[in-house]
Amino acid sequence: MWIEIICGLIVYRLFRRFFFDDDILDVETSDSSALFLVADRIQKLYGGKVYVGLRIPDADTGSRQTIDMVLVTKGELVVISVKNFSGFVSVGGDGSWVCEKAGKHRADRHPDPVAEARKQASILESYLEKRGVVLPEEYISFKVILPNPKLCIIPGSFFPSEVITYEQWVQLKPGPKSMLSSWVKSAFRGGKKEMQESVQQNLDFILSTAPIWDRLELKGSKYILGEFLEFKGKQEDVQALRNIKRSKVDRLIIQKTSMFGLAHSRLQVLYALRDYRTEGTSTLEWKEVNVRSSTEIIFQPDNSSKVRKFKLSSVTSMTLSA
User: Fold this and answer.
1) What angle do CA 82, 86, 88 make, to 5 degrees?
2) Which of 99, 101, 182, 214 is least crowded, fewest Cβ atoms below 10 Å from its Cβ?
3) What residues does each domain of the chain span?
């Protein structure tokens, strides 16, 4: 019996080794994937443009402030913080949030997300002013969204109006006739003066060229934000990918696989050369290389001390910050 069990474990490990990327399994419920699901729904509901994973320079600290997402419409700019918390949550006496999960003896404490979002909005506004865009009064606002269905609000807990609970989140609908909560009316349907078209274009340009986290899109619509470090694999494959650097490349796409036996499967990698022109519409210049599917991307996820490895066969695309 023990022989059968050991043989089964060996077969299982070999199966995972060749057909699955262990680091992919950790991304199933990641905060980054939740972030992009929220961004997709926000844009579908309210139009405009959503910018995800910004890293805005903070002049006061000399560091970069991570902003989950920014929604830009003709009537408003909204800084949105997405907290993928689960379990039972309450607000502590010091304003911090306390999350308790079944089976855990110790609760997790998080800094006040509302205070964090308020600070992010202030940093972003200062950054925009330094780049030549002064927003109209009360044009910028901020929200905290709790999209995880496994989060329960402890009765009696007080959350500011800027917080959007899961129950409110799933009830959102587009259109003025729908039963929308007041925060939507104020944050997305406000009757504020529309910005002039030229100012709006400048705002979109600044946010589209602002520093961001590098982004990995994996098969199955999973996302990871962080920092691309390097490629690893056979020397000839790494050499073929040598031109894919953030100083030169904006984005790469894994287009298709050519199969010549499992050990020799190859991928077609398309990458777009970075365009530094600031005026007018330009066409990206795409290059192509073919490498083994076992070639790996070494990636450092945001808010994680563990470096991850992802086979190119599990990656759909990668976007690099300038």
Assistant:
1) 120
2) 182
3) 47-208, 213-319
